[in-house]
Specification:
Helices cover 39% and strands 18% of the residues. It has helices at 10-26, 30-41, 46-52, 59-81, 84-91, 93-96, 113-127, 141-144, 177-185, 226-241, 294-299, 316-324, 337-340, and strands at residues 131-132, 138-140, 169-171, 190-199, 211-221, 247-252, 257-266, 283-292, 308-315. The protein folds into 2 domains: 4-94, no CATH class; 113-340, Bira Bifunctional Protein, Domain 2 (BirA Bifunctional Protein, domain 2). It is rod-shaped and about 130 Å long. The chain has 343 residues and is of the alpha+beta class. The strands form 2 sheets. The chain has a 7-stranded mixed β-sheet with strand order 1-4-5-9-8-7-6, with helices on both faces.
Length: 343
Amino acid sequence: MNDEGHYTTTQSLDQLEQEIAGAIQAIKNDDSAEAFRIKYLGKKGLFRSLLKSVKDLSLEERKTYGGKLNALRNSTEERFGAKPWEESMEGGEEECFDPTLPAWPIPKGSIHPLTKTRNEIVDILVGMGFELAYGPDVETDYYNFEALNFPKHHPARDMQDTFFVSADVLLRTHTSPVQVRVMENQKPPIRSIMPGTVYRNEEISARSNCQFGQIEGLYIDENVSLADLKGTLLSFSRQFFGEDTDIKIRPSFFPFTEPSLEVDVRCFICKGSGCSVCKQSGWLEVLGAGMVHPNVLASSGIDNEKYTGFAFGMGIDRIALLRYGINDIRLFYENDTRFLRQF
Ligand code: DAH
């Protein structure tokens, strides 16, 4: 029902103007816009019926009242046509908030492949009875070389290109110095693993870096033999690389072990038949090991008549490269999330 009866005088059109302004402001969505259009601007709307009655007015009234009514209709059409409610719909949270839409994903970090590899190695060795120990990255010549049976000027020092801080202080080139620190502070039986970062003054390439992770292992007790070392490394390799893994032990040289050996595991990619990862040999070199040299026991305060022990050391980056089939070691340190997201 229209209330045109209220708006038949020129003054009452001011009231209508206010009413319309309020009604446009009150429009919140398409439904209330349509209701407004029908009420005021539709075929049976207020303006139509008010304009129809203009012809019955006197000439004077037609001019004043009719003119004002026409102007009001035009301005109403214009204001309504500008759809001011759409602006408030965009900004207004109530209208836009749809609780059924899926939420924006919160980006999650992932464990770095080197950390993951180190954690897995540590978990297996801790499960076998080894305890964690740590030593400093900035070491003295004594712990890094001397106490490990590298005499001064011994050519074996050349195996490890060292970053020196001063004549006697350096960045450790391996985690083996932590063995000495552990033996100085504990009495046998000692079963320790010592993860850490090591530094070497080497050309950076796809295969080598000037810093990388190592894990050192040490077992000192009465009657520890090479058979214990072999059994420990075989058990570790089968837990880490797979149940059907075989190991191969080759003689080697390290100043701090006698005898010294290197351990290969059967290539877990081709199972020994030869592939690009193992360079067709069927074997992957994974760690160095040996029986702790009596000189090292003595310089660490361990009775080398009563005790023997074995030690081993492995490079974490190298094992992670092999494990994940990565062909460039530098990727581990570039923090490119396209690489890291895959782990
Ligand atoms: N320290 C050696 C290196 O960095 C690795 C190593 C070899 C550690 C034999 C040992 C070991 O404990 O017995 O190349």
